[in-house]
Design brief:
Length: 282
Amino acid sequence: MEWRGRRGSRNIEDRRGMGVSGAGGIGLVGMLAVLAFGYFFGIDISPVVNSVSQTQMSSGEQRELTAEEQQMGEFVSVILAETENVFGQSVRDQAGVAYSDPQMVLYSGVTQSGCGGASAQMGPFYCPLDQKVYLDTDFFKVMGERMGAGGDLAAAYVIAHEVGHHVQNQLGILPQVTEQRQRSSERDSNYLSVLTELQADCFAGMWARNSAQDLQINREDIGEAMDAAAAVGDDALMQSAGRAVVPDAFTHGSSADRQEWFMRGYDGGNLGACNTFKAAGL
């Protein structure tokens, strides 16, 4: 995969150089509350990370980004621009819906979102209330070093998945799912969440297919994305936490299901290949 030298997105809000106070004033008490709060579309990676650093929790001073952080910001910007190209055209041409690009917020440790406080331990997530994707770029280190899912396309898969939730929001899928989940049992609500997540995985695969030529994506790169999909499966995360695997408690899908739907999107290359709800008989 080759991303360097390509156009970057202008829809980036980089808060990584800001202290916690500057990033929203969440503070220690707020952070503890955040850890108990679950977003619909975040990935709970607390089983594979220890804690937010004391520096991030207590410092309100601005800092300079490291060279590695700067490069990661450039990478995210390029991938976001690629999603703008693919989803912008696909949503307009295939669904007949006007598409507006999401914003990407990069942060370190903790921050504030339109959906409330956010912590690195919650993983990347999309907030439909402000139509922004929130990402602590250290998540990619966690993926590579602790989850066995490193590589550029693994990271790009995460970004495209979260933008996939924005696509769902633009198509009116998220509001419908939210309303139905509020009227459902816990088990049925979890199942609807799984179908939502698998569709976002499928959209990520669709994005990879349509960006393959621009980014020179090959089968080896696809393997990186498949490793990432497996690493964030509910069964894998439950096992990492030393818990029994309970399918009824899944909210994102098993590793196998996440891999399958990513490949469905990659092989199909269009929005129509990603109707997880129809496939489930809903």
